[in-house]
Amino acid sequence: MTEEEVFEKVRDAFVEALGVEEDEVEPEARIFDDLGAESLDLLEIVFLLERSFDIKIPRGGVKEATQAGIDPSEYEVDGVLTELALEKLREHMPEVEADEITPGLTSNDIPRLFRVQTFVNIVVHQLAEKGTPVER
């Protein structure tokens, strides 16, 4: 399977869940701001992707991945991400412009950063974990 094939299936999930047109679902499209998703829509999108790819997508996976190896007190203070956490988030989410991952960001803000490409990356990672590598 290629990354383009993964993108096509991810796009199909967004079209089905959000009722948007295929041409609106581009890799750089923001899930909430550009495609109009709401929090509950993420559950449906994740369900559709899990079914389509026969994978399990862990809830809170982006936060867990960026927090790996960091003491919780070094990850966030009073709910606000530390500079170290922001750096890890930039590394883990290269599809998001670095200037959008700024001081003052909270854990609850992370989903607002999600792009369609974020879900492509998650699926590619989960397929690799399952032993099904994706050609990039």
What report would you give on this structure?
The chain is mainly α and 136 residues long. It has a single domain (3-129), classed as ACP-like (Non-ribosomal Peptide Synthetase Peptidyl Carrier Protein, Chain A, Orthogonal Bundle). 51% of the residues lie in helices and 3% in strands. A two-stranded antiparallel sheet has the order 1-2. A hairpin with a 2-residue loop joins β1 (76-77) and β2 (80-81). α1 crosses α2 (39-53) and α1 crosses α7. The chain is globular. The model has no long low-confidence stretch (mean pLDDT 94).
Describe the secondary structure blueprint for this structure.
Elements: H1 3-18, H2 39-53, H3 61-67, H4 72-75, E1 76-77, E2 80-81, H5 83-92, H6 110-113, H7 116-129
Antiparallel strand pairs: 1-2
Helix pairs in contact: 1-2, 1-7, 3-5
State the major sheet. Answer: 2 strands, antiparallel
Annotation field: number of helices: 7
The radius of gyration is 15 Å
Tell me the number of structural domains. Answer: 1
CATH fold-level topology: Non-ribosomal Peptide Synthetase Peptidyl Carrier Protein, Chain A
Quick rundown:
This protein has 136 residues and is mainly alpha-helical.
Keywords:
single chain; mainly alpha; 2 strands; globular
